[in-house]
Write a structure and sequence with these properties.
Strand content: 15-25%
CATH superfamily: CinA-like
Helix content: 40-55%
Strand order of the largest sheet: 2-1-3-4-5
CATH topology: Maf protein
Largest sheet: 5 strands, mixed
Structural class: alpha/beta
Oligomer: single chain
CATH architecture: Alpha-Beta Complex
Length: 162
């Protein structure tokens, strides 16, 4: 069952008549799955792509060769390129990219421990990049990341304009 944050976000997007798409690595489709479980999500959810392995990021999302080697698959720049490149092919008002380390391995380091998640979200009028750190087991980290995305999208789409 989707969290309250996801439900609230979906309801706000439905009200605004905005669509959303996801390009996921660490969350492996969980964002798309959680949003799809909300009633009437078909009005807003365009879909998503899981690019877990670095080769898919290069082959399908056209991340330039060498970029992942230089910055690692779990990095702000790779997440940004995932969002921008996926958004070129998928017509949605909002495009969310997520990478990170939900479990040991990958590019884990003292400066990038397990629980580090990178988000890059494209809105109609701006882009937002975030690096966040969550604690817990892999499932808990991913669920916290899903909630963080839903909360951020909700807040950004419901800002009052002056």
């Amino acid at each position: 069952m989707p969290s309250k944050n996801v439900i609230k976000c979906c309801q706000a997007l439905i009200k605004k008549n905005w669509t959303i798409s996801f390009v996921e690595s660490a969350s492996a489709g969980k964002l798309c799955n959680e949003f799809a479980a909300v009633i009437n999500s078909g009005q807003i959810l365009i879909g998503g792509l899981v690019c877990y392995h670095a080769s898919m990021k290069e082959d399908l999302l056209l991340i330039p060769k060498g970029t992942i080697e230089q910055y690692t698959p779990e990095s702000a720049i790779v997440t940004k390129l995932m969002a921008q490149n996926f958004h070129r092919f998928v017509n949605s008002d909002i495009c969310v990219a997520l990478t990170g380390l939900a479990s040991p391995g990958g590019s884990e380091s003292p400066s990038k421990p397990v629980g580090t998640i990178f988000l890059h979200i494209i809105f109609p009028d701006k882009e937002i990049a975030k690096r966040v750190k969550f604690d817990g087991n892999p499932e808990e980290i991913i669920l916290q990341a899903v909630d963080a995305v839903a909360d951020l999208v909700y807040k950004e789409t419901n800002k009052k304009t002056k």
